[in-house]
Amino acid sequence: MSGAVMTAAAASLSNCHSCGSLSRAGSGQERCPRCHAALHLRKPDSLARTAALLLAAAICYVPANLFPVMTVREFGRGDPSTILGGVRELIEGGMWSLALLVLFASIVVPMLKLVTLTCLVWSVRRGSRWRPRERTRLYRLTEQVGRWSMIDMFMLSILVALVNLGAVATIEPGLGATFFAAVVVITMFAAASFDPRLIWDRLEDTR
Fold first, then answer.
1. 89 near 102, Cβ under 8 Å?
2. How far apart are CA 179 and CA 62, in angstroms?
3. What is the pTM assigned to this prediction?
4. 169, 19 contact by CB (below 8 A)
5. How many CB atoms lie under 10 A from the CB of residue 10?
6. How many domains does the chain have?
7. Do residue 57 and residue 144 come from a single domain?
8. How many Cβ atoms from other residues are within 10 Å of residue 14's Cβ?
9. Dist. CA 187–CA 53, nearest whole Å
10. Among 11, 51, 59, 111, which residue has the least CB neighbours within 10 Å?
């Protein structure tokens, strides 16, 4: 076909997932000549692994928002606070910018990442050829932005370590923080297990 572009898969070339070296890969049993890792044209069981991780993250997302993430005690008194409860308290305290940051990083980003990756897996599984370039860019954006949700866990860990004044004031982590950290980590693994090259394979098959 005139004007057709030779792809790496058509030439049996593959990037090593460990060191990035470009090597020949055919049956999937070859080894990288640089680091001796197994070579694959595509990540093995990419869609199945990503779907399983997304399901686990979606399950953890519910208790992450229902259970308290921390308890602030002052002079022996304090109530546990969920993520939305913390956002409400920040708004009542006039700290709108911080409230929006927590809302975006803790609620919006994890939800959008779950929805986006689910849509990408579904589109690849059904063999969609709709806007592959935009879907690839969306995947890259999701992969880069998702990790910033851990900023809440960093803030909580710092507060727990610094605010430990005995009976005067203490901050204790809650069960919701554990589930929230699980959501962030699992979605990061889900994004890493998804192979965006599968988006383009359908176009190559039709050609």
1. no
2. 9
3. 0.83
4. no
5. 12
6. 2
7. yes
8. 22
9. 7
10. 11
